[in-house]
Design brief:
single chain, about 80 residues, mainly beta, two-stranded antiparallel sheet, about 0% helix, globular
């Protein structure tokens, strides 16, 4: 996955922000799964994302490629 791609982020994923020395400054866990925007790669472990309009870092192994879904039209006649 590359910068600008959408990724799927599962629920109960830990998000972090780092201080200037590289230590964890703040963190939170996601409640619901969500599609997020990839911003950049920090290192071999973390990717910067936009989650609820804010930048956060997440372990890369917790991100999955977003998939398109087809909307089901209940009014469609088979």
């Amino acid at each position: 996955m590359n910068k600008g791609d959408l990724a799927w982020l599962p629920s109960e994923t830990s998000l972090v922000r780092f201080d200037q020395k590289g230590g964890v400054k703040t963190f939170k866990n996601t409640v619901c799964p969500k599609n997020v925007l990839l911003l950049e790669k920090r290192d071999d472990t973390y990717r910067k994302i936009v989650y609820n309009g804010e930048p956060w870092y997440v372990p890369e192994h917790m991100l999955y490629p977003a998939r398109e879904t087809e909307e089901k039209n209940d009014n469609q006649i088979s």
